Amino acid sequence: MISDYQLAQRFVESSGMRWCDAVRLVLDLYDHVPENVRRSADACFLRMKEMVELGAEAHRVRHATRSLSEVMELSISARLHRRFATRSDLRYFARRILRSVPEAAGRPLRAMSTRECRGILTRTFHTPAQYRKGRAFLSSVFAYGVRQEWCEENPVLRIEVPVVREGEIRPLSMAEIRRLLDVAGRAEFRAIAPALGLMLWAGIRPNEVRRLQAEDVDLRRGFVYVKPRHSKTGGGRQVPIRPALQRWLQKHGMPCAWSLSGWSRRWRSLRAAAGFEQWQQDVLRHTFASYHVLCFADLPMLQLEMGHRSVELLRTRYVNVLRLRREECRRFFECM
């Protein structure tokens, strides 16, 4: 009959472990068993077995991870419901990070620290605005990794968000607006004239205008409808078509001219032909907001028409009425 000692010897030898190592491991486990459980050999054995199983699971979880480049790709693929342009932006940030810091591609997500992530952002993005967007992208990658249990926490959340100091965007004057409208009436620019009207008198963003369909502009009911899937923020809204815009659209037709190929090139050409060598991003949207405030004095209404979540952004970023007069703002919406 085989003794317990002989049976244990066979187990240890078949495992390839040395006796002293096996004994040391058992004693380490035994040290963590409470005194009252040690009184029963069977209870002690079951507790030590449970500790081994829990430790094995914890070890599996700790080391179950993916590389940063893999998680970037998987997190982008998980957002197939987002617009093509949004996914293109995400892929741009992924490529830029991996091109600037190639050694980060194979880093296990679980092993990456806040310091390492901060270094990646610093080497990749060189302005506060770029850094802020890059931080948001990298944070979304780690957030996806946390949900998949490939890392325990999101280290990017501990990285400070840089302050982006926005420069003043002056709304266009009535004379500048007239220059744009006069040039848009030329034959070579007539195809994008409806887009100009929608950006100017309805505050629609350029990329939102490009996604509009004919049925989204309802002259009979007097509204422009920006569907959630077409808006920048993912929220739908409707903007009134006021008299100046109504007449402009009736004059220049209602086909989906703003969806034609080469739209961006034609829009740049129109601005240049109107004498705008420098053009600030979204200046037409800022013009709409500033004229709207003086004309209607209703920030909540403007908030809805702009599609913002609060009026605070309007106060701090969009509204600039220092050089405007109330009468010309009324004329802007009524009989431009």
Report what the structure shows.
There is one protein chain. The protein is mainly α and about 325 residues long. It has 2 domains: about 70-160, Orthogonal Bundle (DNA polymerase, domain 1), CATH 1.10.150; about 175-260 and about 265-335, Orthogonal Bundle (hpI Integrase, Chain A), CATH 1.10.443. The protein is about 60% helix and about 5% strand. It has 17 helices and 3 strands. The protein has helices spanning about 5-15, 20-30, 35-40, 40-65, 70-75, 85-100, 115-125, 130-145, 175-185, 195-200, 205-210, 245-250, 265-275, 285-295, 300-305, 310-320, 325-335; strands at about 215-220, 225, 235-240. A 3-stranded antiparallel β-sheet has the order 1-2-3. The N and C termini lie far apart (about 105 Å). The mean pLDDT is about 85.
Computed over alpha carbons, the radius of gyration is: 32 Å
Shape: elongated
SS class = mainly alpha
Number of separate strands: 3
Could you tell me the CATH topology label of the largest domain.
Answer: hpI Integrase, Chain A
CATH C-level of the largest domain: Mainly Alpha
Look at the structure and give the mean pLDDT: 86
Q: Enumerate the strands of the largest sheet in spatial order, edge to edge or round the barrel.
A: 1-2-3
Q: What is the chain-wise order of helices and strands?
A: HHHHHHHHHHHEEEHHHHHH
**CATH-level-4 superfamily name of the largest domain:** Intergrase catalytic core
Attribute tags:
2 domains; 3 strands; 336 residues; DNA polymerase, domain 1; three-stranded antiparallel sheet; hpI Integrase, Chain A; elongated; mainly alpha
